[in-house]
């Protein structure tokens, strides 16, 4: 497979993964709304608070945030700030490359730690809050997937920016 073919396949794979995790994040957001409304109804109207609804809506909040990171990155939804002046173009490019590589490395390291915690949680059967709470491995797995997808998206975005920068240098 040529470098260009691999690059296109990588783009499609990361975009598909980011969209898939964003759909799950959207479903978790809707669940969080419904679970919170039901929790309030159970507590205020029926006078029977539900630990499961409370705990599962907290899990859904974490899933919503971490599973949507890569999708937001693909659509330039993150806030960026210019620190270096426009005159320092080469310095900005170098600082951008370096910060992207460091960010991807840190995200990957966190993903490994979280994945190991996920395996531990599955093995021990740890639950959130109490014995009736949702299993803790669900948000751990989602966090590991979200961090990994975000790191892959960052790396791919940087390779595209590097290709754009090199083509601009050739045209100058």
> Mean pLDDT, as a whole number?
79
Strand content: under 5%
Ranges where pLDDT stays below 50 over 5 or more residues in a row are none
**What is the string of helix and strand elements?**
HHHHH
Secondary-structure-derived class: mainly alpha
* Tally of helical segments: 5
Give the number of domains. 1
Helix content bin: over 70%
Radius of gyration: 21 Å
Q: Which word captures the global form? A: elongated
Biggest sheet details: none
List the helices and strands and how they pair.
Layout lengths: L2 H42 L6 H17 L1 H6 L14 H36 L12 H35 L1
Helix pairs in contact: 1-2, 1-5, 2-5, 4-5
Summarize the structure.
The chain has helices at 3-44, 51-67, 69-74, 89-124, 137-171.
How would you sum up this structure, described in words?
This protein starts with a helix and ends with a helix. With 172 residues, the protein is an all-alpha fold. The chain has 5 helices and no strands. The chain has one domain. Helix content is 79%, strand content 0%.
Summary keywords:
single chain; 79% helix; 5 helices; mainly alpha; 172 residues
